[in-house]
Amino acid sequence: MPNAADRRLNYTPQLYYYKGPFGLMLEYAVSAQKVSAVVSGGTLVHNFSNNAWQVAASYVLTGEKKSFGSVVPGRGLESRMVKGLGAWEVVGRYTGLNVDPSVFADGFAEGTKSAGAARAWTVGLNWYLNYFSRVEFNYEQTQFQGGNQIGNRPTEKILEEHLQVAF
Prior knowledge:
eight-stranded antiparallel sheet; elongated; mainly beta; 8 strands; Porin
């Protein structure tokens, strides 16, 4: 069982861009850690560095302004003056994860059980009922490199729904 042997270094620079109903976010993450484990009767210590990234874009179909915060519907469901259907937003994301190859080469993990890389894409629809609540509908598909006895772990597909309420 691997154990952390020293400090961990994580850094995650992000870039956001918003213009009217359009939003774009870029992110890159690196995690570096010294790890020790007993492998084949001996103690190994190694520095691992894994990285991940994502590109996410969104567009508010009902025209509201996109920002770092929540979308505020121009006409929410509970509006006293002018009732509406809230705000609707389409979203898309593409992500990647790369595991340090020496994790497998040095025996800290088995390539037949753990994937060395993954790529995923997501499409979704967000419904902002009002300033405090949002319903999300997403479809995501993830493809793996390695992680199976023979070849790659099977592609995972998921359809999910979230209800978010903030106070």
